[in-house]
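Thread: Modeling a multi-component assembly for a lab meeting

Hi all, long-time lurker, first post. My supervisor asked me to bring a structural picture of a complex we are working on to next week's group meeting, and I have zero experience with this. I have the sequence lines for every component (393 residues in total). Could someone generate the structure of the whole assembly? Inputs are pasted exactly as I received them:
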Amino acid sequence: MAMRKITEGVHWCGVVDWDRRVFDVLVPLPDGTSYNSYLVQGAEKTALLDGVDDAKIPLLLETLRDVPRIDYIVSHHAEQDHSGALPALMAWHPEARLLASAMGRKLLIELLDLPADRVVAVKDGETLALGGKTLRFLYTPWVHWPETMSTWLEEDGILFSCDFYGAHLATSELYAKEGVRVYRAAKLYYAQIMMPYAKQVAKSIEKVSGLGIRCIAPSHGPLYDKPAIVMDSWREWVSAPPQNLAVVAYVSMHGSTRRMAERLVDALIARGVSVRQFDLATADLGEIAMTLVDTSTILLGTPAMLNGVHPVAANAAFVINALHPKAKYAGLFGSFGWGSKPLENPAALLPDLQVELLPTVLARGLPREAEFAALDRLADTVAAKHAAAGLAG
Ligand code: FEO
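Re: Modeling a multi-component assembly
Sure thing. I ran the full set together rather than chain by chain. Output:
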C-alpha cells in the first residue's frame, strides 16, 4: 500500500483489511478494519510506530521498501494485530531497537520470542528526540491491556493512541468525517473492546485531554483531524449515566420464552421504556454490546435446559458479564418443563455486574394470564426504577 502523508515527516504506512470479518474469534467486524502503522522521520532519527497483523507483513514491508533506516520501532500494544509484524521488521532492520512500556517489553518478549537485548522499556513521560520531532511516551494502561501506551508527537500535536480511540473500519478516507458510519464503528469498537475497562479508559481520557491534541492517529480505522468527534463520544460512553433503555435478550426452543419476551417488550413500551429486543439465536454480538453502552436494564429470557439455563443464554450472559456494562438492573424470565430450579439463580449469570436484581418470572410450559400479569408487573418495576433514577430517554 502507498504511504499517506499526514504532515511533514509523518506518514501513515499501515494496511487496510477490507475483508476481515471477525476478531479474536469473537468480535464481529462488519466493516473490516485497518492496522495503522506510522513513520515519523526526524532530522536525525526515524521511528516506526506499531506494526500490523502478521497476515499483512508482506504489504507493510513493501510499503517501507524505500525507507533506508529505522532507528526505533515503538510498540504501543503487544496484541498481535499490531505486534505480529515486529519479528519480521526487526529482522528486516537489524539496526532498530524496539521501544515499549515496561509491561509491554515483558509481553512482547514472551508472546513473540523477541531477542531481549533489542527490546527497551521506556518510562511514562519519557521523551525521545528524533531531530525536530519529539516523541513523548504516555502510559495508558488497560486501554485495553495492562501494557498499553500512547505516543505524543509534541511539535505536530499528534496523539498516536493505538487501540485507544480506535475503530474497526476499513475505509479509503485517511481522516474520519463526522457521520453515522464513523460514529457507529467507533461505538461498536468501544463497546466490544473498551467497555470492560471503562474506569481505566476514563483515566486515560483525562490524561490526554489537556495536551491540546490537533490529530488523533489510532491503530484501527481513520484518523481524527477533528479530535472532538471521537473524544466527546468516548467521554460520553464512559461517563454518562445509562438511559431509559432496556435490553430484552432471549432464546426460545418451542416459543414459550419468546411469547414472554414479546409480552415484556410490549409492556415496557407501553410504560414509556425504550427497548431493544434480541433473539439470541441470531442476534449480532456487536449490536448487543453497542446497545449495552446505554442500557439501564438487562432482561434475559431462557428456557431450562440441561439442568441450567439454555447454553445460548449462558453464553450471552457470560459475554455481557465480561463486557461489564453500566446497567443498574437485571432480571430473568423463562419457561421450564418439569422443574424451575435451573432458572432460580439469576445472580449466578451476571456475577460481576453491580445490578439490582428484579423479580424472576417463570412459566411452566406455555405462559398464561398469571405469567403475563407477572411480566406486566416486571415492566411496572422497570419503568418505576427508571423514573426514580431520572433516566433520560
Ligand atoms: Fe488492536 Fe488490542 O489490538
